[in-house]
Write a structure and sequence with these properties.
CATH class of the largest domain: Alpha Beta
Largest sheet: 6 strands, mixed
Order of helices and strands: EHEEEHEHHHEEHEEHHEEEEHEEEEEEE
Bound molecules: manganese (II) ion
Number of domains: 2
């Protein structure tokens, strides 16, 4: 059976603590469990203090068949940062803002060019999603139309080498599909509504708790909006949301959840509980097809 773990963001110390807590042991440099397989929802890198170690632990586990790993938006961005088009332009602009987000990783990676190159090559082999017999994994949002678009440019979720320019070109269908799958579901506010983000920029789009089944108002579904009063109190039309077919349990990361780990719906569990912001490194121990709150393990 599977243990699904949340975003790591360079916190290899917490990752190792969690692996030991789950009963994995390091043997010949590879963490392993006699009966279980680890699945990472991506975002191994950026922010935290142990970038190389975080990548190496998961990569070795994958290479020896003890883990699976999908791509988070941070691995996607790392590839785009390191890759050029035919004119020699980087697929992700080397701006101050982008560098700052990637600094912790670059500081370690640039000390060891061979490791850096091999790591980017490995990141390129990570699928954007996983669909197994009894579960699904995606970094931020399961959305069938976006998965259908992805399938034109990927094999079993792994982007083809010649798709990277499309994947990083704003407005391209592949770029938009990956935005949804790896960064989540955004919607436009009704005409006339504006809120201000943490840097006080006016915004007319909100990120959403797309999984939520009960309260569906703009105020309840918005993520990261401090001044909820600035949003409409009415419901978001159902057609504006992706929904979820509930056919299989779904595991996501990405959302920097706060508090005690818990399910997001009867069939959806987020395993990112903000280890990079003083929160917890979390796993969901999957032993049955019905999800429950007791299956979270946190350190
Ligand atoms: Mn993320």
């Amino acid at each position: 059976m599977y243990d699904i773990i949340g975003d790591i963001h360079g916190h290899a110390d917490k990752l190792e603590e969690l692996l030991l807590e789950l009963g994995y042991k390091e043997d010949d440099g590879v963490y392993q469990h006699p009966e279980r397989t680890l699945i990472s929802v991506g975002d191994l890198i950026d922010r935290g203090p142990y970038q190389k170690r975080s990548v190496d632990i998961i990569r070795k586990m994958c290479e020896h068949g003890h883990a699976k790993c999908i791509m988070g938006n941070h691995e996607f961005n790392a590839i785009a940062w390191a890759t050029t088009d035919t004119n020699g332009h980087y697929l992700r602009e080397h701006s101050d803002k982008n560098r700052k987000q990637h600094d912790a990783f670059l500081l370690e990676a640039e000390q060891d060019k061979q490791w850096y190159e091999e790591t980017i090559d490995w990141f390129k082999t990570l699928p954007i999603y996983l669909e197994l017999d009894n579960l699904r994994i995606v970094h931020a949002c399961w959305h069938t139309p976006s998965l259908d678009i992805l399938s034109k440019y990927a094999t079993e979720g792994v982007l083809h080498n010649d798709a990277w320019i499309s994947a990083t070109t704003e407005g391209h269908e592949l770029f938009e599909a990956i935005e949804v799958l790896c960064k989540g579901w955004e919607i436009a506010l009704p005409e006339g509504f504006v809120f201000h983000d943490k840097d006080n920029n006016p915004r007319t789009n909100i990120r959403t708790k797309w999984w939520q089944e009960d309260d569906k108002s703009y105020q309840a579904l918005a993520i990261g909006v401090k001044d909820k009063e600035s949003l409409p109190n009415s419901d978001i039309p159902g057609s504006a949301m992706p929904g979820y077919d509930n056919q299989k349990p779904l595991f996501i990361g990405h959302y920097w959840m706060k508090g005690e780990p818990c399910l997001q719906s009867s069939r959806i569990a987020c395993v990112d509980w903000s280890v990079a912001a003083g929160g917890k490194m979390v796993a969901y121990r999957l032993n049955s097809s019905s999800l429950n709150n007791d299956a979270f393990v946190a350190v």
